Amino acid sequence: MRIGELARRTGTTERALRYYEEQDLLRPARRPSGYREYVETDVRTVRNIRTLLAAGLNTVTIGEVLPCMVTDGEALVPACPELSTVLLQDRERLTEAIDDLQAARRVLDAIIAGAGSPAARRVDACQPA
DNA sequence: GTTCTAACA
DNA sequence: TGTTAGAA
Hints:
Blueprint: H1 3-10, H2 14-22, E1 29-30, E2 36-37, H3 41-54, H4 59-65, E3 69-72, E4 75-78, H5 83-113
Antiparallel strand pairs: 1-2, 3-4
The chain binds a DNA duplex through helix 2.
């Protein structure tokens, strides 16, 4: 099938599919015309890629993990034992990212709270934006 | 009408 | 990632 059909059947865009190929997540063959030719199993692969992307994994990690994943109906299930460590490591990365964002929010909250102080009365210093 | 590559107010 | 231009 060509890129348009795969995009339709996976709820993605052609742009995304070309990007996945660029990241070596998909290896579609080429027709003499230059058009990409996808196989039936690519439908499932693309769905798995999207699930992993939604889990916050980057394309490099997805490339490593993808071949070790088997789908059980709707669920993606790890098929290799070493996989759990990679996934747990990524979970830590997400936890750190969350901590950083929470710290940023605390700083912003402090600034917002300052809006009520006397120093905030210098309206002449405010630019219309 | 569909896809391709390349590039970015 | 969206979008678009220009070509096949």
